[in-house]
Amino acid sequence: MRFIKRTLPLLATICLSCGENFLDIKSNQRQKVPNSIADYQSMMDQTSYINVSGHVLGMIGSDEYFINTGQYDAFRQGTNYNYQKNAYTWEKEVYEGGEDALLDWNNGYRIVLRANIVLSGLEKIESASDDLTSYNTARGTALFHRAMTWYNLAQLYCPVYDAENADIELGLPLRTDPDVTTPSDWSSLEDTYRKIITDMQLAKTLLPQVPLTKFRPGKIAVDAFLARMYLQMGEFSFAKNHADQVLSATSTLIDFNELTNTDNHSFPVDGSGNPEVIYFSRLSDIMILSPTYFNADTLLLESYEDGDLRKTYYFKENASERELFMGSYSGDKYYFTGLATDEVFLIKAECEARLGDTGAALAALNRLRKHRLSTDQYVALESQDISEVLDLVIAERRKELVMRGTRWEDIRRLNKEERYETALVRQLGDRRIELLPGSDRFIWSLPLEVITPE
């Protein structure tokens, strides 16, 4: 039944509204048309645009925070805000029409279109040998961003990946042509994931090992991304392999014992000087997730044991005694959604556990925990029980990767296992709203403007 519901858009035309004005590539005659490697690299270096990731609905819909009844009732009304309230309670139809461009779908396909323009433009340039590195970097960067964008969109608008039926589940429109008049066809979920992998594998051959800035991807970022993606797919051997490649190149962790909580934000701005950040991206500025409304989830707060310094450096109580999140690796009001070493350690730990190596799983897990718990209270975890070790890893992901954009996709993939099923709950006065495992609401509805009748 789910496949039938999700295949209805096949009968419609996909309207992505991605013309040149939409991209602001040439908004007036004084701006030149891109025609060089440097021009195309510049298009991918617009960090306020390219490095703003599409995790909005997943972040709003997750269980890492809540807003109380009074905040909900007082939440700002308007076209660009109503969808946030609708997403908070997982309404069947989130969008009401006319929302601004700060939506996951529209912003995502803007980035895809820009990447396609860059890739198409580069094909027309003959690169001299002394330009080859720059040429490859620009091309690899475009491939990386296109693939990562598709992945982020798939976590919101597609079913959870399952190898047994991915070839019959609906994926995404895989636009590779910059011509906006070209009709878009929906791919299968299998084709979507395989295209993402193909793009990323090619990007890795083109990108430098370490980029000039963390706003750009490098080979290490590709491996970190593929580790995340293969974990989502349940391909644990592949995920472990890519995690190992990352950690062989960079495995530095911040020792929280050496941090000082002197201001509202615990980490440096834009990941600068943060040795854990591999690739930097952040979330859009979303009202419902702002400090005005945010309350850290009480069960999450209770999960931190005595001596866990993350509770100190991730959260801060304000004057109204609400627990706010101040532990973003963006170092400011924005939520970091990029790739970092701590996540890779957790991916390795989970994969080792699922592949039966409790020793290796605990080694990775304890390596992370030793840098997060106070020195005088840290005790290494020990167990020979594979299920217990896996439980420890899953619990650690919840405590470590707070407000990163990974929680929504974790809930989705783990809900395939009865042991880790999670029902999400919103309590608004006497009204109790539940999102149960297996619900179609874990696949967000598309913006009304996306699908128009033929």
Tell me the structural class.
mainly alpha
Radius of gyration: 22 Å
Query: Looking across the biggest beta sheet, what order are the strands in?
Result: 1-14
Mean pLDDT: 90
At CATH level 3, the topology is Serine Threonine Protein Phosphatase 5, Tetratricopeptide repeat
Global morphology: globular
Q: What would CATH call the class?
A: Mainly Alpha
Largest sheet: 2 strands, antiparallel
Beta fraction of the residues? 5-15%
This entry's quaternary arrangement is: single chain
N- to C-terminal separation? 24 Å
Examine the secondary-structure arrangement and name the CATH architecture: Alpha Horseshoe
- How many domains? The number is 1
Low-confidence stretches: 1-30
Number of helices: 18
How many E strands?
Answer: 14
Task: Please estimate the helix content.
Answer: 40-55%
Provide a descriptive summary of the structure in words.
- With 454 residues, this protein is mainly α.
- It has one domain: Alpha Horseshoe (Serine Threonine Protein Phosphatase 5, Tetratricopeptide repeat).
- The protein is built from 18 helices and 14 strands.
- Helix 3 runs antiparallel to helix 8 and helix 12 runs antiparallel to helix 15.
- The chain is globular, with a radius of gyration of 22 Å.
- The N terminus is likely disordered.
